[in-house]
Prior knowledge:
This protein has twelve helices and eight strands. It is an alpha/beta fold.
Amino acid sequence: MTRTPLMAGNWKMNLDHLEANHLVQGLAMHLRDNNHDYDKCEVLVIPPFTDIRTVQTIVDSEELNIKYGAQDVSIHDNGAYTGEISTAMLTKLGCTYVVMGHSERREYHSESDQLVGAKARKVLDAGMTPILCCGEALEVRKAGTHVEFVLSQIRAALENWSAEDVAKIVIAYEPIWAIGTGETATAADAQEVCGAIRQALAEDFGAQTAESTRVLYGGSANPGNVKELMAQPDIDGALIGGASLKAESFAAMCGFYA
Ligand code: PGA
């Protein structure tokens, strides 16, 4: 298997740039203490926009292997789009990943699958890696239609994509009922959907693409459940909110393989 596991810390709207400095320094220290092997797990932090320059400065000056990215991006190149941030601004700061379609953005900013797909396209074209989020609400889960719901989100976002491009993206499955609630999907629940995603990628884009595309799980992932999640065949990492805000717990999760 060629998929390198990825632990991605989604800070959401937490930590100012001074706190960001502190967290990245702490994370680097814990990873060093744990002799972290970056070939066994890629480490990514996804701070608010206002922290990115600070994170870049620490990563560059200390030559850290930690990667960083953004939580959202505009589909426009530049111009009269008040409040928006372009892919060019992010690449200039050394960002290598951008999240799109997080359920919080779908809910509070009415982001559609089509917009999410356009953002992923924009990010890929700019040379960064899209982390395309999907996931069902509790009602959908209760109705038992979660697999088809999630696959329809992904298929709508990736309509007309080439297999080669799909192989480069990361998909994050985050059941909404498990985000920030302390309620994690069981490893079997997470595997069911992540496995179905890979199966759908194989059907739509071929087996080779399905084998290359990384699929993450997100939703109350923490140091206590990460090993079991990562033992599932189709889970290649985690998108981590709350537990990524503490250097020690995030570093511990990055060391799931030990
Ligand atoms: P959580 O958030 O780990 O705090 O549940 C995950 C996410 O929304 O990315």
